[in-house]
């Protein structure tokens, strides 16, 4: 089981897990004509934002002849320092925005330093009926009912101001995400 860059537009953010990972559901592009199997996919939030920032900086700096001398290592370092961090709490809308920006990147599955940024976690059986509505909401509710949720996270999180980082520090519209010990068919060939 794998996720291709052509699958990114079909990824729908569920939200954030453990203030480190953006969880999403995705129907692989090659399965559009097959039964409605979805993948549960994890995105390293720091690596994703770092990749988005690196490609934005590289494009912006390449337009200016004087700035072209800036080394790739300096751009990587700048994007790493400016990217959201583990522990930064994101709303579902912010998770979706990051995934939307990622789909426009030339190397969406690696951070600025080459680390892997995306992992397919589980193949979800065809649970979604056409009449169920939002697939992410349905999957989230299934996950929440299958596993006890952790203690709620407060909306008042201390940390950098909105000027210091790209996204505000709040929780996913007061939703808690369960741990990933879910009784779905885990794809062993991923690991």
Automatic annotation (TrEMBL):
One of its GO terms (biological process) is mismatch repair. GO terms for molecular function: ATP hydrolysis activity; ATP-dependent DNA damage sensor activity. Transmembrane segments: none annotated. GO terms for cellular component: mismatch repair complex. InterPro entries: MutL/Mlh/Pms-like (IPR038973), MutL_C_dimsub (IPR042120), MutL_C_sf (IPR037198). This is MutL_C domain-containing protein. It comes from Macrostomum lignano.
């Amino acid at each position: 089981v794998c996720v291709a860059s052509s699958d990114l537009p079909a990824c729908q953010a569920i939200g954030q897990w453990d203030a480190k990972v953006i969880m999403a559901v995705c129907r692989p592009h090659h399965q559009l004509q097959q039964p409605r199997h979805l993948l549960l996919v994890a995105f390293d939030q720091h690596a994703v934002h770092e990749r988005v920032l690196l490609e934005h900086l590289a494009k912006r700096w390449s337009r200016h002849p004087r700035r072209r001398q800036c080394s790739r290592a300096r751009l990587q370092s700048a994007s790493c320092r400016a990217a959201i961090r583990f522990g930064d709490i994101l709303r579902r809308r912010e998770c979706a925005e990051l995934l939307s920006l990622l789909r426009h990147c030339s190397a969406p599955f690696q951070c600025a330093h080459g680390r892997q940024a995306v992992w397919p976690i589980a193949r979800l059986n065809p649970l979604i009926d056409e009449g169920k509505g939002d697939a992410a909401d349905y999957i989230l509710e299934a996950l929440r009912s299958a596993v006890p949720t952790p203690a709620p996270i407060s909306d008042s999180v201390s940390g950098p101001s909105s000027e210091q980082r790209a996204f505000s520090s709040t929780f996913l519209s007061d939703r808690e995400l369960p741990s990933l010990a879910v009784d779905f068919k885990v794809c062993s060939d991923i690991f």
